[in-house]
Structure formats: structure tokens, C-alpha cells
Specification:
Elements: H1 9-19, H2 21-32, H3 36-52, H4 57-71, H5 75-121, H6 125-140, E1 144-151, E2 156-163, E3 174-176, H7 180-188, E4 192-194, E5 216-223, E6 237-245, H8 253-302, H9 306-321, E7 325-332, E8 336-343, H10 353-361, E9 365-367, H11 379-386, E10 390-398, E11 402-411, H12 419-479, H13 486-510, E12 515-517, H14 518-533, E13 540-546, E14 550-552, H15 553-574, E15 580-589, E16 592-599, H16 607-611, H17 616-628, E17 632-638, E18 641-649, H18 652-656
Parallel strand pairs: 13-15
Antiparallel strand pairs: 1-2, 1-6, 2-3, 4-5, 5-6, 7-8, 7-11, 9-10, 10-11, 12-14, 15-16, 16-18, 17-18
Helix pairs in contact: 1-2, 2-3, 3-5, 4-5, 5-6, 5-8, 6-8, 8-9, 8-12, 9-12, 12-13, 13-14, 13-15, 14-15, 15-17
């Protein structure tokens, strides 16, 4: 303010009196003050005031020499007091500036810490961005702060968070790259500061933002790397952060650097949040795919209805692959493909030659644009009639790479099927192949089972007829012999045994192939015995009770002979004189079957003698039970009843379990 040309004291004093009343007042006090200490204090005040008025120290030294001469003060004392107070004022100002700068830097660090904490505390992008704009506006001391995010799909900026502007504009205001100050900062990848937007042609007013009250604007791009080190392109741009003030303002380099630092942190957070969202979406998609595939596999395991399973597969393929249509084709007779299931299409769809050719060659077929694919000149007409633009076809293969059909996906828009989608389609193809192959094997097994069942029934029928013929021949031979003779008795026993075996084959003809029940065998033998051995004068009453037990054909035949011997023996010996009761009871315990035949005939001798009998009937029973049934036989007397027990392992129920 004061130049060296003002060193002449009278002229300088007059100038000071005219321009600085405070200095003139100090000079008057200095002239009227006799005390040296008081004069020195006034000189110190004058030196400090000289610094705050931007005076030069050289002029102050000349001015001190003049004052020392005028007021009779030691020149060294006058110059020392003036310059020392001048220096002290300068240091005080520097200290104050450092303190203010330190406070500002601490506020910036605190704000940056809050920004980072917000980024680390949640993956909700909107919540964190709102925290950022609140923090930046508070730290820098501005009235408005906003964040715009870059949309790579639409190549523009969208308002996502704001403080000070109209909150209703969030998500509604979109800015093209290069439009307005914000768009310029995004396009050029550098901060753009505007002192007064009313005087800047780049500024475009957006009515929805209600920003008429704001004059200055700073727009800083949000990029992954700084513009000084890397080229900023659309792949690195994440958005723009802007700050605005109500009056014109020049933003300091420190403020710009702070906003850039915040933008850098926000860039990484935006990328992380987007990656997290993408990962979450992919994880959700994978879980949905696995759940759907599990459902499809479960349905395949639960039922063998091929149509229903294939319908489920094409429906889930359309849902998960996000396509418009899915078809499953399979090879049939005459080496041709037919449509087995469709979702989104018509059952009248024909199999086109290009699909059949791809299936025959066992390779996937991908068509991005059905209207311009040079491989298939006729495909454009087909695509137009069936309303698809892209398709992907995968052959269905089973063991040894045998091709049994194909699955095809169609979209109405251009679609490139990436690796993940091809893998998903391949999985569906495998499931469809399994379903088709299972249905084929099931049909073949059912056909073979029907043939086997018919053959077994025919075999049992023929065996029964042959046994009946043999039984009739033996009965004819028996009638020619003396009824009371041993020969007639032997033939009668043989006829009964053959009838028992024939009865079993008669049961096997009517029931499950190769399986019958013990009570059915007993009833067959009892009915036969009543016809041939019953005497109306000495009635015999039969009771069949106990648990149902299934036996295979071989065991049934052996058991029929054994039970026939026991029942015939009871009727012919124990009950022949007075009649009585015969009880046949079946029990199952610990994997074995117990069949007990009891009679209350009074003519039996002691159980021991019967058990030790060497008759042919008992010999046949012991042999069949021990060797053929792998069981044991015992004969005992219990409470006046003669009891015969046959115990053998149960096999049929274990096989069926």
C-alpha cells in the first residue's frame, strides 16, 4: 500500500493522516506521551497496524528513523519496536492461516472418513450416495451437492442423490454426455469450475431441479483412475458429483482436490456395489436353476409319463433361459424327427431340415440372425412365419453318444447365447435325454413283462392241465383196484399230492405271476380234501387263520405237498373215526414263516410215537421242509390237540421291500 517514495516524513505523515485515521491517532499519542515505555508500546501498535495495512517493511524502517528524530527517541529503539511488532503481526497471521488450514483439513479428513465409513457400512448404493452429498456439502460449506450416475446402456447421466435441489427429480433427470457443465465434466474426464453460471454458455438450466437460486458450480467426474495417469473413457466413468452455491464463488484448489478424493472413493464403491448386485443376481439365478433342475430330476424319478416330463422341461427351459419358445424333438421310426413337446409354440410345428441335419451331425446349432444367415437361405421365411429371430439347438445324447433327439430355444429379438446359457441348455438336454431313454426302457420292460407274464400263465395252465390228466389216469387206475388194498391207498395218496400241486399252478394262473399266499394254498388243498376224503356222517370242520404271508411259486409247490400230507393225514387217521376240527394258522416272526396244522382227533397215540414214525408221508414232509424250504419240522401234542409245525425263512416280502 505504501511505497518507498513516501519515505519523506512530512509528506508521509500527511498521507497517513488523510488515509489512515488510526495511524494519525497513534502519532498524536506518541507526540504527547513523555514516558518511554508508553512510547515503545505505541510504536509496537504502529508496527502491527502497518503490517495489517499491507505496508512495506523498508518504508516502515525509514518512517521509524523519522519518528525517532522528530520525537527524540533512540533510532535503534524506534526501528526495533516497529519491525519486531511488524514481524510478530506477520507471524500471528501466518499462524492463524495455518490453524484455519489445519481445521479445514481436519474437517475434510473427517468428511472423507464419513464417506468411507458410509461406503463400508452398507452395499445400498442410494443410501451411501445420499450420505456422500450430505457430507460434502457440510465440509465445503455449500448449499447444494448432487451425484449423477453414468448408465452405460443409455450412455447418459441420471440424478441419483442430492442435497439442496429438488428431491423429486432423483431418478427423473437425465443428462447427455457433453450437455451442460455436468455433461462436459463427464465427457472430458476433468473437473469443471464455473464462477457464475449466468455468464457461462455451457450451463443448461433443468427446470425440474429448481436450481435458479444457485450461481456457482463445480462438476467433478467420478472415475476409477485419475485423468492425469490414465485415459478416462466410458469404461472407467462412473458418474459426476456437483456442488453449487447461492452466490458467485471461485472454488479453491483444496476444495477441488477434496471433491476429487471423494469422487475417487465413490467410484470404487459404485463399482463394488454394482459387482455385488451382479453377483447377487447371478447367485439368485444359479439357485433358481439348481432348484428347477432338482424339480425336473425329481419329476423324472417320480413318474414315467414322458409327455408330462417333457412339458415340464420345456416350460422350465423357457423360464430360466428367458427365451420365447422351446421345443423338444425325438427320433422315431423311419429315421425322422417329430415334435415331442413345446412351450410357446404350436403343436403343428414341423421339423425343419436344418435342425434335422444338425441333429444327425451331433453338433449344436446357433443362429444369431435367422433373416440373414447365409448357411440357410430358406430360414428367413421360416423365421417370419414362426416369429423368431435367433435360435440355439442342442442334440440329445445318451450312453455312447447315441443321439435320440434335440432341444431348441428361440427368441424374438437378436440373442447371442453365452457360455452359461449353453451350459444350462446342455443340462436340460441331458435331463430330456434321460426322460426319453427312461420312457423307452420302461416301455420295453413293460412289454417284456407282459410277454413273460403271458408265457408263465400259459406254462402254469399247461402244467396244471397235465397234472390233472395224470391225476385222472391214476384215479382210473385206482378204481380198478381193491379199495381197501395198499395199492389203492398209495394211488389215492399220489392223486392227492398231484391235485395239491395242480391247485398251486391254478392259483399262479390267476394271481401275480410267480407269487401266491399260504392261505390260498391251504384253501385249495382243503377244498380238494373235502371232495375226496370227507364223510357226511363224521363231519370235519376247517379253520384257516393267522397273518397273510406271500410265497413264491417254487415254495408254494413244496408247501402244497407238505400241507396236503398233513391235512390228509389228519383226515385219514386222526379224525377218521369221529370227525372233529382242523386248524391251519400262519404266523410271521423275525423274518420266518410258521405254519401250524392242528387237529383234535381222539384216536392219536402218544406224540413221541407219531414223531418217530417212519411212514412215507412223514419222510416226504421232513425232506421237503429241511431241504427245499431250508426250514424245520416238528410234531407234538398240546392240550389234547395234535400239532404239526413247519417253519421256514420268508423270502418274497424281503425281495419286495
Amino acid at each position: 500500500m505504501f511505497s518507498a517514495q513516501s519515505a519523506i516524513l512530512p509528506m508521509l505523515v500527511e498521507e497517513l493522516r488523510a488515509s489512515l485515521p488510526n495511524v494519525a491517532e497513534l502519532l498524536d499519542q506518541l507526540a504527547n506521551e513523555p514516558s518511554l515505555e508508553r512510547r515503545r508500546a505505541l510504536l509496537r501498535q504502529l508496527g502491527a497496524l502497518w503490517y495489517h495495512r499491507d505496508g512495506e517493511p523498508e518504508v516502515l524502517a525509514e518512517f521509524g528513523l523519522g519518528l525517532a528524530e522528530q520525537f527524540g527517541i533512540e533510532p535503534g529503539v524506534a526501528i526495533a519496536e516497529l519491525l519486531m511488532s511488524y514481524g510478530a503481526a506477520r507471524e500471528e497471521k501466518r499462524t492463524s492461516e495455518w490453524e484455519n488450514n489445519l481445521v479445514r483439513r481436519m474437517a475434510e479428513l473427517s468428511g472423507l472418513h464419513r464417506v468411507i465409513s458410509a461406503a463400508n457400512s452398507t452395499l445400498d448404493l442410494d443410501t451411501s450416495m445420499q450420505m456422500v452429498v450430505e457430507t460434502v456439502a457440510e465440509v465445503i460449506g455449500v448449499e447444494a451437492c448432487s451425484v449423477y450416475l453414468y448408465d452405460k446402456t443409455s450412455d447418459d447421466l441420471t440424478l441419483r442423490a442430492t442435497r439442496g435441489l429438488n428431491a423429486a427429480a432423483i431418478g427423473q433427470v437425465r443428462i447427455e454426455l457433453g450437455d451442460g457443465v455436468t455433461g462436459v465434466a463427464a465427457k472430458e474426464g476433468r473437473p469443471v469450475s464455473v464462477h457464475d453460471v449466468y455468464n457461462d454458455v455451457r450451463f443448461l438450466r433443468e427446470p425440474m431441479l429448481a436450481e435458479e437460486a444457485f450461481r456457482s458450480l463445480l462438476a467433478v467426474p467420478i472415475v476409477l483412475f485419475s485423468a492425469e495417469r490414465f485415459h478416462v473413457g466410458a469404461d472407467k466413468l462412473q458418474g459426476v458429483i456437483t456442488i453449487q452455491t447461492s452466490g458467485p464463488r471461485d472454488f479453491t484448489p483444496e476444495e477441488v482436490n477434496f471433491v476429487e478424493t471423494v469422487a475417487g472413493e465413490l467410484a470404487f464403491f459404485i463399482v463394488n456395489a454394482q459387482l455385488y448386485q451382479q453377483t447377487g443376481d447371478q447367485l439368485h439365478q444359479k439357485v433358481q436353476e439348481l432348484t428347477t433342475l432338482q424339480q425336473v430330476s425329481k419329476r423324472i424319478a417320480e413318474q414315467l409319463d414322458l409327455k408330462e416330463v417333457l412339458k415340464l422341461i420345456v416350460a422350465k427351459a423357457v423360464e430360466l433361459a428367458r427365451v420365447d419358445r422351446a421345443d423338444i424333438f425325438r427320433w422315431v421310426e423311419d429315421d425322422r424327427l417329430e415334435l415331442a413337446a413345446t412351450q410357446g409354440g404350436s403343436q403343428g410345428i414341423s421339423v425343419h431340415s436344418f435342425i434335422a441335419q444338425a441333429v444327425r451331425e451331433g453338433r449344436p446349432l446357433a443362429v444369431l440372425n435367422a433373416y440373414s444367415d447365409s448357411r440357410f437361405p430358406d430360414l428367413a421365411q421360416v423365421a417370419a412365419s414362426e416369429s423368431f429371430h435367433s435360435l440355439f439347438c442342442m442334440p440329445l445324447k445318451v450312453q455312447q453318444n447315441r443321439i435320440i433327439g434335440a432341444i431348441c430355444l428361440y427368441t424374438r429379438e437378436a440373442r447371442h447365447f453365452d457360455y452359461e446359457q449353453v451350459r444350462l441348455l446342455s443340462t436340460f438336454a441331458d435331463e430330456a435325454a434321460i426322460a426319453i431313454e427312461n420312457a423307452r426302457l420302461y416301455a420295453e420292460s413293460q412289454s417284456a413283462l407282459r410277454i413273460k407274464s403271458a408265457m408263465l400263465q400259459e406254462m402254469h395252465h399247461r402244467v396244471r392241465n397235465n397234472l390233472q390228466t395224470i391225476s385222472a389216469l391214476l384215479a382210473m387206475q385206482q378204481r380198478r383196484l381193491d379199495p381197501s388194498g395198499s395199492g389203492a391207498e398209495a394211488l389215492r395218496d399220489s392223486v392227492a399230492r398231484i391235485q395239491a400241486i395242480a391247485g398251486v399252478h391254478n392259483l399262479l394262473c390267476r394271481e401275480d405271476v410267480g407269487v401266491t399266499t399260504i392261505d390260498a394254498v391251504v384253501r385249495q388243498i382243503v377244498d380238494s380234501a373235502r371232495v375226496s376224503l370227507a364223510n357226511p356222517e363224521r363231519p370235519i370242520f376247517f379253520q384257516i387263520c393267522g397273518e397273510p404271508a406271500r410265497v413264491a411259486s417254487r415254495e408254494a409247490t413244496v408247501l402244497a405237498i407238505v400241507l396236503n400230507e398233513l391235512i390228509v393225514n389228519a383226515m385219514s387217521h386222526g379224525l377218521t373215526l369221529e370227525g372233529g376240527n382242523v386248524v391251519v394258522e400262519t404266523q410271521r416272526e423275525h423274518g420266518t414263516v410258521l405254519v401250524e396244522v392242528r387237529d383234535d382227533g381222539p384216536s392219536h397215540g402218544p406224540g413221541e410215537s407219531i414223531a418217530s414214525s417212519s411212514g412215507l408221508g412223514l419222510q416226504i414232509i421232513r425232506t421237503l421242509v429241511n431241504e427245499d424250504l431250508a426250514g424245520d419240522f416238528e410234531l407234538l401234542e398240546r392240550g389234547g390237540w395234535m400239532c404239526a409245525r413247519v417253519r421256514f425263512p420268508q423270502r418274497v416280502e424281503a425281495d419286495l421291500a
